[in-house]
Amino acid sequence: QVQLVESGGGLVQAGGSLSLSCAASGYTFSWYAMGWFRQAPGKERESVASISRSGDSIYYADSVKGRFTISRDNAKNTMYLQIDSLKAEDTAVYFCATRRVPFTTATLNRAEYEYWGQGTQVTVSS
Fold first, then answer.
1. CA–CA gap between residue 32 and residue 4 (Å, rounded)
2. Average pLDDT estimate for 3-28
3. How many other CB atoms are found less than 10 A from the CB of residue 118?
4. Phi/psi class of residue 75: alpha, beta or left (left: φ > 0; alpha: ψ in -120 to 50)?
């Protein structure tokens, strides 16, 4: 079965950095675009970044452009999110997800994602 496992979250001071990972299993990872999302307490889950199957097409939410970097390693069935210049408002649970349909492009549209990980907590102290 499809399984996505996030890791790398933690408590960090504002201005610091974190590197999140999403390990995928149970399906052909390289066939699917992937995305990172986050959900802060009391707020809706929002898109953060998306990456195409080969990594040649990437989209970021405006709020994270220039600070977040999404990447993937198809040989390792793993996606990454490098987070720099962390702000208090980045505090949230971060989720990775797989697009529902294979061989489609990257998208920030949350409705296009089918399988989700359990999330990893990122807390930024100011």
1. 13
2. 98
3. 11
4. alpha
Provide the pLDDT for residue 126.
Answer: 86
Give the pLDDT confidence of 67-108 residue by residue, as tens digits. 999 999 999 999 999 999 999 999 999 999 999 999 999 999
Phi, psi of 89 (to 5 degrees): -75, -5
Count of CB atoms within 10 A of residue 85's CB?
13
Mean local confidence (pLDDT), 40-64: 97
Round to the nearest angstrom and report the end-to-end CA distance of the chain: 40
Residue 62 has a CB neighbour count (10 Å cut-off) of 6
